[in-house]
Amino acid sequence: MIANITKGKRAVGALLYDFGPGRRDEHINPRIVAGNVTGTPLQVARAIDHTARRRPSIAAPIWRCSLSLPDEDGILPDAQWSTIAADFIASMGFDGAPWVAVRHGDDHIHLTVSRVDWGGQLLTDRWDYRRAREAADRLEEEHGLVRAADRFRPEGPQVRNNELEASNRRRGPDAAVPPEREELRRLVREVRDASRGLGRDAFESGLTDAGVLYRANVASTGKMNGYSFTLENWTDGSGGQVWVAASKVARDLRWAELKTVVGELQPDTLAPRAAEAAATSPTPSRVDNVHQDDVAEFVDQAVEMLKQGRIERGTALPEDHPALSSDPAARILAQWKAKAAGQEVPAEALPTPPQSVPAWTDKRRRPYGRLATDAIPREIKKARRQAATWQAAAETALSNARSWDSQATGAVTGTRVRDLHKLRAKVTAAEPHIAVEVAARNEARDADTATDAARKIWRTADRLKSLGWLELRREGTSRKAEEKKAATASAAIHAYAEQALQARSRAADAARAAREASGLPNAEADAKRLEQWPELLAEAQRGDQDEGRARRDAEQARVQNLLGQIRAAETRVGQLGAEAELRRTMPEGQRKAEGRARRDAALQKVPASRRRKASPPGEQPAHLRRRGPSEGRGPTAGR
Question: Which of 178, 281, 310, 324 has fewest C-beta within 10 Å?
Answer without folding.
Answer: 310
